[in-house]
Structures are given as C-alpha cells and as structure tokens.
Amino acid sequence: MNTTRAAWVFITPALIVLGLFFLLPVVAALVLSVTDYDLYALADIRNLRFVALENYWTLLQRPLFWSALGHTVYFVVVGVPLSLGASLGAAMLLNSPLARFKPFFRTALFAPVVTTVVAVAVIWRYLFNTKYGLVNYTLDSIGMPTVDWLGDPHWAMPTIILFAVWKNFGYNMIIFMAGLQAIPGDLYEAARIDGASAWAQFRHITLPMLKPTMVMVGILTVSGYFQLFAEPYVMTEGGPLQSTTSVLYLMYEEGFKWWNLGSASAVAFILFVIMFVVTAAMLRLSKRGEPA
Amino acid sequence: MRVARLALVAALVLASAGLASCAKEDSGTRTLEFWTIGREGEAVQKLLPEFEREHPGLHVSVQQLPLTAAHQKLLTAYAGDSTPDITQLGNTWIPEMVALGALEPLDARVHASKVVDKGDYFPAIWSTNVIDGTLYGVPWYVDTRLLFYRKDMLAKLGYDHPPKDWAEWQAMMAKLSQPKGKAFGVLLPTNEFEQLLALALQQPEPLLRDDGRYGNFQSAGFKKALAFYVSLFKEQQAPMMTNVGIGNPWAAFGQGFYAFYLSGPWNIGEFRKRLPPGQQGDWSTTPLPGPTGPGASNAGGSSLVIYRASKHKDDAWALIEFLSRPAIQERFYQILGDMPPRRSSWAAPALRDDDKAIAFRDQLERVKATPPVAEWERIVTEMQLVAAQAAHGDLTIDQAAAEIDRRADRLLEKRRWMLDHGHKATP
C-alpha cells in the first residue's frame, strides 16, 4: 500500500510533464486536425468549422501531398542505406588496427553532426553553385558536363541527400564504433585460423554481432530521415519546382506560413501513422530472422 | 511542500518582474516597439535619433525581421498576443492582418493630420491600404517592377530606345537570344511570381471575380499574359532558372548573359555598386511595356500600420507622420534606395535628377493593386507554381489557367463560406 503510494509520488512529476508537454499537445493536434482552424478562426473562434475527416480527405487528393510523400520516401530509401553504409564504413576504417591519428579522424568525421545546419548549408550552397561552385569547377576541369545542382529539379534531391548523409553519418559512426569494439577479438582470430577471407569475416562475424546495434541505428535513422525538414528549408526552400518539398516541409508551410493549423495537424498525423507502420515493420522483420 | 514553495518563489519573481516593468513605464520613457522587415530596419535607425530628439521621453526599439521569416513572425505574434506597436507591413499582407482584426483603422488620424495628405500619394499605392472602405496603413515606400536593360546591347542591334510594347520587346529579345541557350533576352526567375503578376495586371480583366469569391484566371486577358510569359521560356529568350540558380544576377547582367531584367527599385543601388564604373553608362531603366504601349505593373511596397493592441497609438502615429515627411523620405531614399510613395517627395533633387529613378516615377502613375483578399499571397504563389510547370512544358496554357483557377477556388472556399453566412471576412 505504502510502496504503491510512494511509487505514484515518484512518477507523478514525470507524468505531469509528459501529460502537459506531450499528451496534451498530441490530443489538441488530433482535435485540430478535424477542424478547419485557419486565419479566420484565429481572428474569431466562431469561424471555426468541424469538418470531420475532410482535412485528411483533401490532403489525400492533393498532388502536392503525394509528391511530398514521394520525395520523403525517396530521401529515406536512398538516404538511409547510404548513411548507414557511410557510418559503418567509417567506423570500420577507424576501428582498424592499421588506422593512424584515430582521435583526430574521429573528431573530424563527427564534426558535421555538431555544427549547425544553417552554417554548413551556406558552405554547401557555395560548393554546389552552378557557375562558381567548386564541384562544377572540378567536373568542368576533368571534362565532365556540369550540373545545376540545386536549381535542377532532378538533381536537387540527390544533392540534399548527399548533404544530409554527410551531415549525419558521424553520429551513427560513433555508435557503430562502440558496437565494433564490443565484438570479441578471438572470434576474428579463430576465423583467420580457419582461413576465412576478410569478406567472410565481415559477413559472418561483424554483421551478425552488430545486428542489435544495426536494428537500433536503422530504426532511429529511418524515423529521423522521415522527418526531413531542415536541409530543404535552408538549402532550397522546398524548390526548385517543389522537388525537395518533404512531408514535414509541407506541414510547416501549411501550419506556420499559411496558418492552416487544421490541415497541418492532419499532415502530422498521417506522417505519424506512416512512420509508426514502417518502424514497427522493421522491428518485426529484425526479430524474425537475419538482418539485411 | 516543495512544490508550494516553488510556486511561491515563481509568484514572487513574476510579481517583481511586473513591478519592474511598471516602474519603467512610470519613469517617463515610453518605448515604442517598431518591427521592420528586411533591410529597412538598418536604414531607419539612422533616421530615428532625430525623431527621438523631437519627442523627448520616447524611445523607439527597432526589431529587424528577415523577409523570409516575417510572415510567420507577424502571424505568430498575433496568435501569441505579442504584437508590436507599429510595424512595416508589405501591402499585400494587409488584407490578412485586417481579416485577423489586428490593425487599427487610421482614417480619423489621416483626416486630422497636417503631414499625411492622401491626395499627394500615388492613388493605386494608397488603395492597397484601404480594405472595405477603411484605411489601415500609410504607404512607406513603393515597389514596382519594371525593366532594367542594357542600352549598349540594344544599340548594337540598331535600337536607340527601349521597347514600348510587347511586340517590340519580343522582337528585341529574339535578336538578343543568340546563340540559343548561351545568351538570353530577359531574366525571369521562375520562383518569383512578380513578373507574371505584372504582365497579368496589364490586362483589363480582374484576377478574381464575384467580390473575390472565385479565381478569374481563365479570362482571355490572363491567358494572354501567361502565353506571353511561357513563350519567353519556350523560345529560350528567358533562362529556366530560379534566383538561387542564377547565383549572381548582377554580374550575369554585366556580362551580357541577358539584356533585360524585370526587377524592382532596390536593384538600382545594386547595379551601381556591383557593375564596374566603365559599365555604368551602359544600363538604364524603362517602364514595363504593355500589350499595346506602356503597360501597368504591380503596386507593391510596404506600409506602416499600428496594431489595435498597442498602448502607444498616438506615439506610433507620430512616428508614421515623421517617416511620411517628404524630407525624411528623401533621406530614406538616399540611404537605401527605397522609393517614396508621395509625389512631393519625388520633387526632391536626389530623385528628380536621377536618370535611373525617373522610369519608376513614370511607372508609379500606372500601377495596379492586387485583389484585397487575405488568401492572395497563397493564390499568387500557386499561380507561379503552375506557371513554372507550363514554362517547363508540362501543361498547356489552357490547362494551366484552369489549374490555377481550380487551386484559387479551393483556397477561397472559406472566404465564400464567410461571405455567404454573414461572417465578415474583414471586420
């Protein structure tokens, strides 16, 4: 009896904070998403109409929503494997006994994670400038055709992906390094004695031993990448031709640029459902059998 | 126990903060919160010491908002009850703020004013501040789009004058766009709606119909403007570029990458600064050519508005009157190049004798206001997105016009409901 009471007392502050700053906003957003809360409702609440699921319905009929979803999925499907690959590769290089200046490289590769997006985006915009950028200059000097990286609708998203991968891979690299260091060295020793090649060692020791790390990192990265926002916001403002407008960017524009909080909340819930389904499926898959 | 003590401490802190702010009010200095958007904030700070000298005990605190964040900030400030006393407001945003009921009507103050004289302002610019017969802002500076052009490049083709109408303009651009894809007639950044909007405003038909209930983009006039706009891209007379993609439009203009640039007054200063002295005689400005003879352009610019929630409305009005004086507007032009909305300010030598500014004076008599509905900004944004698709060749002119109408009608749905149910869209 007394212990139960004590337990409640202990968790009450946490519950209050969670309820106030998490549960309440979520419920409020859910309520908002079935109304047409907009500028007029902001002026006078009597202008608010209950619209049931109309926000969701209109959204599903809007080509921009589908293209935003398409861009987001494109970003996730290409970006996540690239990001994980880059992180794992960098982690293995740094973990190799042959590597020199490890602390330096670890810091250098982690640096993009802790720098502000806005600051590095400015640099990247210079690098990828069509006429004066270093990237096009290099392409030009080796005789390759130059590309309008941020201005061409086909190239803007790949550029954003490159930027995001570069910006984020350091974080996962650190986690992978911790995972790699936890793999006992005698496994590799035994494999070498049996004559296993480097690839076979990677395939049959490193990957299986890294599986728990991989699952966690994969799920975190997928849910992070679904929330693509800052990169297009600072690099392209969703353009050109809305080719880098992500779901979250669409929500931001609906909600804070045009103040259509009703439909912005609907966007948020649809994204939530999608992310929930995808990450749940990933968790399911990882429990069932071999990791990818 | 602990929670109670915390609450007590919090209450004490709040109370003392409240006391402190009261104390500040009583000591005689009043602070006027003034928000500015873009570069105006820096320039206006050079004028304010004089205002503060004239009004002892009044301090103006200027907060500069970047243009890209200003719209959100103004709406969020209203939602959070933290609006300033006075703000600069793009005149196309006034209908939105009026729909919110955030702004103070200014008719009575203007009537009583010796400084702000309605008849002295360019009428179309003034009219952007009048919503349903009530005045909500005083124009601060004007912004309209016209043509910057390379005199020397036209001279080489045998033209001793800038284009007067679309036909002549297009003939010039066809000759200038050689070799194809390397040189262009005109720069129309595909992410800016102002260029197409200016061409559309030259047409007789209004852009919205039935008191702003529906879009009117399938009118013959708009289709004509859209077809002209799209043809410039189709025939490679305008590069398919955003203003991000072009990088440095001033250098490209100097290098002859394009000979016409449809842009606004701030670029006079930019071109003076960025082009080498030897090239300064090579460029000029001219009013925007219309379908037949000199055409209209948009009545853009910023106004000064007072928030209804302000506690210092008289002081805010004093600041508006100060900034509306022709002498002050002349200095403002000299600092920043923002063009004054009053005819008498244009009589000042700095403007009258400026060969690049004269074209704007002429254009300002022929500007047109956009429809005063709160949704306008969204409609015109959608218009440009669809127009860019048409320029890309994804849509025909008819398809694009129908699509813009469809999107405009969807955006205006709430406005229609408000008007039809007796809710006032503009309180």
Automatic annotation (TrEMBL), chain A:
One of its GO terms (cellular component) is plasma membrane. One of its GO terms (biological process) is transmembrane transport. Signal peptide: none annotated. Pfam families: BPD_transp_1. It is found in: Cell membrane. Its main location: membrane. The chain crosses the membrane at residues 7-32, 73-95, 107-127, 155-178, 213-230, 258-283. The keyword Transmembrane applies. Coiled coil: none annotated. It is a multi-pass membrane protein. This is Sugar ABC transporter permease. InterPro entries: ABC_transporter_permease, MetI-like, MetI-like_sf. Residues 69-282 form the ABC transmembrane type-1 domain. Keywords: Cell membrane, Membrane, Transmembrane, Transmembrane helix, Transport. Belongs to the binding-protein-dependent transport system permease family. The keyword Chaperone does not apply.
Automatic annotation (TrEMBL), chain B:
Pfam families: SBP_bac_1. Coiled coil: none annotated. This is ABC transporter substrate-binding protein. Residues 274-295 are annotated as: Disordered. GO terms for cellular component: periplasmic space. Keywords: Signal, Transport. Residues 1-22 form the signal peptide. InterPro entries: Bact_solute-bd_prot1 (IPR050490), SBP (IPR006059). SUPFAM superfamilies: Periplasmic binding protein-like II. It is found in: Periplasm.
